[in-house]
Amino acid sequence: MSTVLPNTLPVTNPATGENLGAVPVCPADGVPALYARSRTAFAAWRTTPVAERLKYLKRLRETMVAELDDIAGQVAEETGKVAMEAMTTDILPVLEAIRHIERHAEKSLGAQKTTTPLLFIGKTSYVVYKPRGVVLVIAPWNFPLQLPMVPMLNALIAGNTVVLKPSEVTPRVGVVIERLFKASGWPEGVVQVAHGGKDLGAALVDAGPDYIFFTGSARTGQIIQQAAARQLIPTTLELGGKDPMIVFNDAPLDRAVQAAIWGGLMNSGQVCMAVERIYVERSVYDRFVDKLCAEVRNLRQGTDASSDIGSMTFPHQVDIVRRHVSAALAEGAVLQTGRPPEEWRTAPESGLWLEPMVLTNVRQDMAVVQEETFGPVLPVIPFDTEEEAIALANDSEYGLSASVWTAAVGRGRRVASQLVSGNVLVNDVVITIVNHDLPFGGEKSSGLGRYHGPDGMRMFCRQTAVMVDKGKRLREVNWFPYAGKYGLFKTLLESYYSSNRNWPKFLSTYLKLLRHASKPSREEK
Ligand code: NAD
Prior knowledge:
A seven-stranded mixed beta sheet has the order 12-13-14-11-10-16-17, sandwiched between helices. The protein has a six-stranded mixed beta sheet with strand order 7-6-5-8-9-20, sandwiched between helices. It has a three-stranded antiparallel beta sheet with strand order 3-4-22. Strand 5, helix 5 (146-157) and strand 6 (161-165) form a beta-alpha-beta unit. 41% of the residues lie in helices and 19% in strands. It has helices at residues 31-45, 50-66, 68-79, 83-109, 146-157, 171-183, 198-206, 218-230, 253-265, 282-298, 315-330, 367-370, 386-394, 409-418, 486-497, 503-517, and strands spanning 8-12, 19-24, 112-114, 124-131, 134-138, 161-165, 191-193, 211-215, 235-238, 243-247, 275-281, 334-337, 357-360, 377-383, 398-399, 401-405, 423-426, 439-440, 443-444, 447-448, 451-452, 461-468. The chain is globular, with a radius of gyration of 28 Å. By secondary structure, it is an alpha/beta fold. The longest helix has 27 residues, at 83-109. It folds into three domains: 29-239 and 454-464, Aldehyde Dehydrogenase, Chain A, domain 1 (3-Layer(aba) Sandwich), CATH 3.40.605; 243-435, Aldehyde Dehydrogenase, Chain A, domain 2 (3-Layer(aba) Sandwich), CATH 3.40.309.10; 475-518, no CATH class. It contains 16 helices and 22 strands.
């Protein structure tokens, strides 16, 4: 058990309970100075050309590539996940995000010319994207490298400065992030990391950043959204999930089973996009459950390079999993594989080890089907028709991701289009979050807004719409004086907006209006 020093956060290896030290906390009264440094740095960073900012990203990418083993090791040690997962689910998405930014930043953040309606002949229109200022990123513990760094990098390339508050559960990965930015030479104050718990998070929100990017639970998301609303601070909220997997009887069953175990049990199921509910068409249900249990029993749990599943990360999460599984078993669910809660070895002192579980005889109204479990639990429920499967999948307060399994890709697309979900995969799981060309975000309690995709950098910008006129005409056709113009405008609108557009009438009326507009004012006559 680690000792908590005053003003520090303990760092613990959740797989062993070993004390790994402590990280100093940023006191709430240090927040004004933190923001002042950020705003000072912003003044110079905002005017640094995108091409110049990209050089810092390139150096960061090179630093990360040079330190892959060290970063993976530190992420694995503090989260209890296996190093392979630290590499593929924390580091890889960050490197992919940098590559995406390197490819698209100059175009995405440059002024975008738009068309100008014919009624505004002679003018040009465009949009400019300007950084917002100080972006506050608040992050959770399950992917403590990927989830803070991807929004940070998008905010930074757009010219913002960033204050990151990592999760208090994984502060040492926050230190790794801080060190990576330092090692790649970013200017002073452009990135700052403030360690602390929810009180510090609340103080950072109350101190009025220019944008808040929050990833975490739906409950905290609501609290932050309320605080942000009081100050009219724009936000993006990336919240929880309860992702359904729908398996039809023509599905590639072995692949579906492999996807269920990886999508549901990777990172011990502590994944916002984890497969948390599996609906299987009744005619293949028994076969699917048998194969699923056999494959789950084959998985290796441990910390070495041959292990598939590590430990849980956060003792409180074990309590939630315990509550869901205990309630399900008490209400008649059957544990097909894994241990019942009374046999769990999950003391923080000795490691948070939870064997993966498959549950059958599960009802749709059970907590393990309705609430986010965020643990290595796979409840499997049979269905009879496509309509029923869609209704069961949509019967959730969440809508982050979903998957549909069928050999008939057309049916996959049809079902996908009816799921209320920010992401849907056909014959695949989870992976949309690593495709930075796609927008990522959730529906319902899974979040507000999207990041990644075409607007992934622009979301951190203030947009200014600009129209330019050469300024040669005395006045516009719709300006004062109005005398004699009503009838002309009526004719203009009829000729322009009717379905049979009358070009000659439109042009002659427009010319009359132009002549009108160039007449001197009454007092000048
Ligand atoms: P959490 O909401 O408890 O904490 C997240 C962060 O918010 C932490 O840094 C915490 O210190 C901070 N915080 C807590 N209260 C705060 C307050 N009042 N004001 C400001 N900050 C505050 O979530 P967690 O347990 O760290 O993470 C797990 C949750 O995150 C799960 O629900 C999971 O689904 C969700 N999640 C979502 C995504 C996504 O992309 N949609 C990704 C990963 C995790």
